Amino acid sequence: MIASSDRIHLSPEAYLEWEAQQSIKYEYLHGEAYAMTGGTLAHNDIAVNLTTLLKNHLRGGRCKVRMADAKVGVTAKGPFFYPDVLVTCNDADRTAKTLVQHPCLIIEVLSPGTEGYDRGEKFRQYRQLDSLQEYVLVDAERMGVEVYRLNAAQKWELTPYFPEANGSAESLMVDFFSVGFQCAIAAIYEDVEFSALLNG
C-alpha cells in the first residue's frame, strides 16, 4: 500500500477512533494520518505469494501471518502502520481484533513512491518494536529481496538476495530466520509480470 500526500492532524486516541469509521485505511505518524492508496498488480501478486507461502509454512503452529488490512501499533500512542505482510507469534496478537503489537517479521513490498520512506523513517519506527527480529523489503520491479536481521549483538544486519549476483531464481533460497522459513526467490515472484509495470 502507498501513503498519499493527504494529511489529517489528530491525537493518537482520536486517530484510532476516527480511522475505524473510514472507508479506506490511514497510517499514523507524528500526529498526522496519511491515506493509503492501492499499489500495482505486481505489488499485490508478491504480497499474495508471500502470504500464501508463509501461511502454508506456519499452519498448525502458534504463529500467524497477516496481510495489508492488519494494523501494527509501534506503541499505544503510535505510530500505526499497515505493512504488506507480517507474522506474529504472540498470543495476545493471535486473538487481537484491531491491532497487532508484537510482530516478529514485517515485510514491505517496495513501490517507487514509498521506497525511501520504507527504507528510512518507517524502518526507524519499526525498530522500536522489541518483538521485531526481521524486516524485509521486496522489490516490485525486479527480483530482489533484502532482509534486515537483528543479530546477537542487537545490531541490524542486511542480507541481500538478488539472482543476478547469487545464481538463478530457482536455486537462490531466501531465508526468514525469525519463523524458520526458506523458499526459492522464484516462488516469491511466481506469476509476477514485470513487463506490465512498463506498459501500465
Secondary-structure blueprint:
Blueprint: E1 2-9, H1 12-19, E2 26-29, E3 32-37, H2 41-58, E4 64-67, E5 72-73, E6 80-81, E7 85-88, H3 91-95, E8 103-109, H4 115-119, H5 121-126, E9 134-138, E10 145-150, E11 156-161, H6 163-166, E12 173-176, E13 181-184, H7 185-188, H8 195-199
Parallel strand pairs: 8-9
Antiparallel strand pairs: 1-3, 2-3, 4-7, 5-6, 7-8, 9-10, 10-11, 12-13
Report what the structure shows.
- It contains eight helices and 13 strands.
- It is of the alpha+beta class.
- Helices cover 28% and strands 31% of the residues.
- Mean pLDDT is 91; it is low at 196-200.
- Strand 10 (145-150) and strand 11 (156-161) form a beta hairpin.
- It has a six-stranded mixed β-sheet. It has a three-stranded antiparallel β-sheet with strand order 1-3-2, with helices on one face. The chain has a two-stranded antiparallel sheet with strand order 5-6.
- The longest helix has 18 residues, at 41-58.
- It has a single domain (39-199), classed as tt1808, chain A (Alpha-Beta Complex), CATH 3.90.1570.10.
Question: Which features would summarize this protein structure in a list?
Answer:
single chain; 200 residues; alpha+beta; tt1808, chain A; six-stranded mixed beta sheet; three-stranded antiparallel beta sheet; 8 helices; 28% helix; globular
